[in-house]
Amino acid sequence: MKIVNVVGARPNFMKIAPIIEEMRKFPGSISPMLVHTGQHYDDNMSRQFFKDLELPEPDVFLGVGPGTHAQQTAKIMVEFEKILVREKPDLTLVVGDVNSTLACALVSVKLNIPVAHVEAGLRSFDRAMPEEINRLMTDAISDYLFITEKEAEVNLLKEGKPKDKIFFVGNVMIDTLLKNKAKGDSSGILSELHLASKNYALLTLHRPENVDNEDKLKGLIDILNEIKKRITVVFPVHPRTKSKLDNLGVSANNGLKLTGPLGYLDFIKLMSEAKCVLTDSGGIQEETTILRVPCLTLRKNTERPATITQGSNMLLGTDREKILKEVMNVLKGKSTNSGIPELWDGQAAVRIVRILIELSGTNAFSQERC
Ligand code: UD1
After folding, report:
1. What is the pLDDT of residue 368?
2. Each residue of 209-241: pLDDT tens digit?
3. Is any ligand 1 atom within 6 A of the Cβ of residue 98?
4. In angstroms, what is the span from residue 338 Cα to ligand 1's centroid?
5. Could you say which of 36, 40, 117, 206 is catalytic?
6. Less Cβ around it within 10 Å: N or C end of the chain?
């Protein structure tokens, strides 16, 4: 069974790593290929993750780079189609919700090659988010839907997906976190940034809804200026956010440490030793849940409800009073008493690969689209 696995943007790398590693344990059953679309292309957004996660070099690099959504999605489709026509795989496996996920799923189904979507069924119910459109469209056309939490099944069933195509397998991002936690612990990032454990807050911001709107970003910077009076804030800046901060004249100063995007191992070390994390990322809500670090999510919705119902996540939007109140609660030591969501146990990739091998044994892939 030849499987083309797709990565494109930063959050894809930690999701695909355990899947590729597991597939490689079954050379008699699976021949995995790795295609990198090049949606993210900088060393610190891409190459560093291959090193940190010991990912094999991609078999194919499409090198699409930046562009508008239409340009980027279209470029990926044109280039990816050539690869599928040449390689004729039995299955395409896509992860997450980035433009590469949707573009490659769409090309694949049009060529009658079945698609497996890992991290299916998550919904923010906010169609202004490009990721929500990518999630809805990818799930609508995928043949096998691997989900990270039970709520995702509810969403998929409501959208008319058949129950026998949905597989609750756990969370591959957590497989990677658990596997690399010890390595991350030996990162020297704390001393490099002159930080002490539990003596700083970690901030990330890159969602268009927060950083592309100047007023919203100004409001968030005001809140940041309040927080840093009470605790040092470390802010690794995403490329999308960098130019916006430059325009607003935000620079490192007393209480605010700005860095470029960090590698995976350094970042998990920074997360695990932080007093709290403030973020608009999706994956970080999940990782902080496992690390049991309070996560203050600067969004009005989350597609990952288990991080709230079971984990350490709080949904605060961009409301100044709410955010400052929760930061103070954390500083006063108010505990979150969080637990670990079901099946976030480091075995998701094992389950996925086992299911794929079983499906290929029943000839499901060839029957699927004939
Ligand atoms: C993308 C994903 C988002 C994910 C995020 C993680 C989509 C729709 N969005 O958003 O879901 O959470 O990645 O990072 O797919 N840039 C660089 N160097 C890079 C990559 C990007 O400078 O290596 C620049 C781009 O040129 C562009 C901006 O950053 O100006 C945004 O990049 P883009 O990939 O369009 O979207 P992200 O905001 O990163």
Report:
1. 57
2. 999 999 999 999 999 999 999 999 999 999 999
3. yes
4. 31
5. 206
6. C
Q: How far is the CA of 71 from the centre of ligand 1 (A)?
A: 13
Which pair of tokens denotes residue 79? 């280039």
Whether 138 lines ligand 1, by a CB cut-off of 6 Å, is no
pTM of the model: 0.96
Locate the DSSP E strands across the chain: 2-7, 31-36, 60-61, 91-95, 115-118, 144-147, 166-168, 200-204, 232-236, 256-259, 276-279, 295-297, 313-315
Ligand 1 lined by 42 (C-beta under 6 Å):
yes
Which of 102-116, 120-134, 324-338, 356-370 is the least confident region? 356-370
Which residues are 236's β-sheet partners? Answer: 259
Identify the structural domains of the chain with CATH numbers, from first to last: 2-170+347-366 (3.40.50.2000), 180-331 (3.40.50.2000)
* pLDDT for res 370: 42
